[in-house]
Amino acid sequence: MRAIARATEDAIGSARVKAKVAFADAVEKLSSEDHAQVGAIHAEMVRSLLEELHPDGLTGEDVQDALSSAVRSAVEWYPDLDVQGFVEVLTGALGVADTEGNRPSPRAEHAVLIIADLLVRRNAAADVYIRRAVAEIQRAQTMEMP
Question: What is the pTM of this model?
Answer without folding.
Answer: 0.91
